[in-house]
Specification:
Chains A, B: Its cofactor is L-ascorbate; Fe(2+). Chains A, B: Keywords: Carnitine biosynthesis, Dioxygenase, Iron, Metal-binding, Oxidoreductase. Chains A, B: It holds the Pfam family GBBH-like_N. Two copies of one chain form a homodimer. Chain A contains eleven helices and 13 strands. With 315 residues, chain A is α+β, with helices and mostly antiparallel strands. Chain A has two domains: 132 residues, NE0471 N-terminal domain-like, CATH 3.30.2020; 122 residues, Double-stranded beta-helix, CATH 3.60.130.10. In chain A, the strands form five sheets. Chain A has a four-stranded antiparallel beta sheet with strand order 1-7-8-9. Chain A has a three-stranded antiparallel beta sheet with strand order 2-3-4. A two-stranded antiparallel sheet of chain A has the order 5-6. In chain A, helix 10 crosses helix 11. At the A-B interface, strand 6 and strand 12 of A face strand 6 and strand 12 of B.
């Protein structure tokens, strides 16, 4: 059992330690984990391998503020285990909390005893996943948000997938979703030519969003159309539902009857255009990305509606 | 019939006109309407009263860019009448379009003939409603978005309304909604103590938003709770659904069984707190309003879910 607080002084003297309790001036007290030094002390019984990678990508050094550790205490009093959610009341958190001791336990956990008797035990993998280093955070963010994007022009060959494979095969569904996330559009082939299959597809991955046009709606030529999409005329490039406070990120279109003539769908990558505009006409880009525009949608479909929202054209 | 383009020169000479066609240098060509001068020319047959208020609140002067007028042409070729929506394709709009003539017609409309033969007729009230003056825009924005807000502290007497009145009486429903919009919270009294009445209330004014917790959900003590709200313990102040990309603006809670002890609801006005924080601790305000925080929600309710979103705490 290597008691951190014991070797802080000697660690600072040697400029090396497995775990540092840093109480710098002007910075909040924090727990500091140095991987390079971990490795040098690899022979130490309580220097766990799982800790030795902590923060390596950012110079081999990870720092965890003590206040953050206390706020994230994983004990059953502070965290509801079944929800993995915070139970500790914000008002009960002492942001100036002080530490009695920090230890590496025999089973490779970091144990912190706080002044006032409460103690917290952190699993090394748990800490590692929450490493504050820029590189580690980038990795976690990429895992959480899949931020890889392809921006495309007219040379794009629209990626395709098979409707029935996506419905039946989990791997095909995942591949479809990852492509949709990365490229923004996927053409699914083979859906039967009757209504109802948009709903099947949505239920495959989540649930439909109800709007004032209903759960789904028919885009077809209608008398007294309350939307230009409900006519046979050509539409300008557009995003859908700009009059919603939160326009949808993804929309499903199911072509049931193809027009004998016309009826082409033209697609454009708004992100690509925005980047081009930023480069070629910064003033226009600034206007479109800073001025909020009024959007109105009014009429009657699933219900009567008169919607009004304010958005920048480029967000 | 007073042909605008004819009297521009004399108008500029006299520094007065009913309608000015302004073709300034360095600014786009535009239609300018001066109300003060309108009034001075009140004896003029074609100086309609409805135009004489145009832009009065902003110094009696309204300016409409010709490009904007062409873009907003209300004729059946450019606007789908049944939807009151633009049909003119963006690609077909000539942003450098020139004007052949501008006229006030006998029935008090502004007629613009564009080079290339197309013509537009604008109703004076339609123009007035779209006046570009700052004051006129403020008025329209207030009508559209009801931006009046009350920020409150502990002295608030929570406004109340009656559940059945709101359901049955349109004026009571409107009063409830306006108060909800202005104050952020309204206590409805008299709802029957059984499930289902949240849905009735929602259907009164719109429709429920489906989330991974279902259309509605029971907040009650549950074994293996997947949310701290599903326990009997005290919750910190919170907003709901921060792990949604678009957290809800309004939430309905229906108290069906009141606890014998405890069970208090504490409310706080986040906008009020944010303003206080901005004044008292600008650095903290800056952090909370600029740093995006990861929010996670995971579990199973209406369906299995693992949600991840990134928001600033103060938006």
């Amino acid at each position: 059992m290597s008691r951190c607080s014991r070797f802080v002084v000697s660690a600072l003297r040697r400029s090396s330690s497995t775990l540092q309790c840093v109480r710098g001036r002007g910075v909040p007290p924090q727990l500091s984990v140095s991987s390079r030094l971990q490795q040098r002390r690899g022979q130490h019984t309580h220097s766990p391998a799982s800790l030795s990678d902590l923060g390596r990508s950012d110079g081999g050094h990870s720092v965890y503020p003590f206040t953050w550790l206390r706020d994230n205490c994983q004990c059953p009093m502070c965290t509801l285990q079944s929800a993995q959610a915070r139970k500790l009341l914000v008002g009960d958190l002492d942001v100036n909390i002080r530490v009695d001791s920090v230890e590496l336990t025999a089973d490779n956990k970091v144990s912190v005893v706080w002044q006032g008797q409460h103690s917290s035990v952190f699993d090394c993998d748990w800490l590692k996943r929450r490493c504050f280093s820029a590189a580690a955070r980038r990795t976690v963010q990429e895992e959480l948000f899949l931020s890889e994007r392809v921006h495309w022009g007219s040379s794009l060959r629209v990626p395709t997938a098979h409707f029935h494979e996506v419905l039946q095969d989990d791997r095909a569904a995942l591949a479809w979703l990852l492509t949709l996330r990365r490229v923004g559009v996927v053409l699914l082939r083979g859906a039967p030519p009757e209504p109802g299959h948009v709903a099947r597809l949505a239920e495959r991955i989540g649930y439909l969003r109800l709007t004032f046009y209903g759960h789904t709606f028919k885009v077809q030529d209608k008398p007294m159309a309350n939307n230009v999409a409900y006519t046979a005329e050509k539409c300008s490039f557009h995003t859908d539902y700009p009059a919603l406070h939160y326009p949808p990120g993804v929309q499903f279109l199911h072509c049931i009857n193809q027009a004998a003539r016309g009826g082409e769908n033209l697609l454009v990558d708004g992100f690509h255009i925005a980047e081009k505009l930023r480069a070629e006409d910064p003033e226009a880009f600034h206007s479109l990305s800073s001025l909020a525009i009024d959007f109105t949608d009014t009429g009657s479909d699933y219900c009567s509606f008169k919607l009004q929202a304010k958005h920048r054209v480029i967000q």
